[in-house]
Amino acid sequence: MPPQVAMHASQSPDSQAINEQTIAELMQQGFVSEAEELLPPPPHLPPTSAFSTDAQTQEGSDGPDYHEFLCQYLYQNFVNGEFCNLLVHVPFREPPYQLHAHIVSKSPYLFHLLTNAVATTESDYTHPISIALNELVDPYITDEAFTICLSHLYLSQMHCVTGENAHHVLAAASFLGIGDLCEFSANAACENINEHNVVAYIEWSDHASPYGGYTQQIRERAYTFLLRDFPEMTSAFGENGSTGPGYKRLCGYYVQLPFDLLRLCLESKELQVPSVQKRVQLAQDVVTTWNQMNSNEQAIVTTGFTEDQAVLISKTTSRRIKKN
């Protein structure tokens, strides 16, 4: 799950309390020179004494990684909304994200906006910078996906990418220019395409917004699933032929597809069928069932073409005759 990002900082004065009398006594005895040396570290950062910054000491060690804990510390500041100097307004979220400019400027897009904002307002970073992403109108960029991407600028969030949200994360990562998260999300989408989400992925790939070569990668994987993987998974053309459960499952699934996608599958030479005769039979069985389910429209199967184009599927509007 993505982090629940706080919108306002929350500090506990009690967690920073120290015994002033004890400090004064220790300073008089020469044990410490500054009171700040006894201040406890932030609650989410272990003491620096727990780590070694010496490269030779760290090499080959299974002990704590200082750099990892430093990233964790910065990430917790983001989650808690602490010490932020940047407000990012987006259409789908209120109040805005509270961020750290020096961290999120890793995004080329945000770096560009920050550079312009600083030049325009002559900001010295002593006051929060406010930028609005009014052009963020992509319906596939969700609050969850955008939060994952912003979090990833602090600390890897690849574990939050799932088969269900991968295309949303890819859309947000493409918008922000986060290359490694784009690639990971695209691969996650391809690996998790199945009979329940393949139509959604194809519809997403037809979306007008550009997601680079990742769109084509996912589209090709989705079509491969429909034309090759699913017929093989169901053993649709096994020993039992058209009477087998696999064949019936394939027909039942194709019937539920949007018509243009159904037509593409039945006409495609990539469809994994053993012969022209089997392709024609599959097309006729699917179209017959489709016509029974759609009384206002009727599909027609035309046969007798080349082996690569054995069938053509067309659709007409069915006119009902009114009885007086």
From TrEMBL:
Gene3D superfamilies: Potassium Channel Kv1.1, Chain A. Residues 9-20, 49-60 have a biased composition (Polar residues). It comes from the Eukaryota. The lineage of its organism: Eukaryota, Fungi, Fungi incertae sedis, Mucoromycota, Glomeromycotina. PANTHER family: BTB/POZ DOMAIN-CONTAINING PROTEIN, BTB_POZ DOMAIN-CONTAINING PROTEIN 2. InterPro entries: SKP1/BTB/POZ_sf. Residues 1-20, 37-61 are annotated as: Disordered. This is 13390_t:CDS:1.
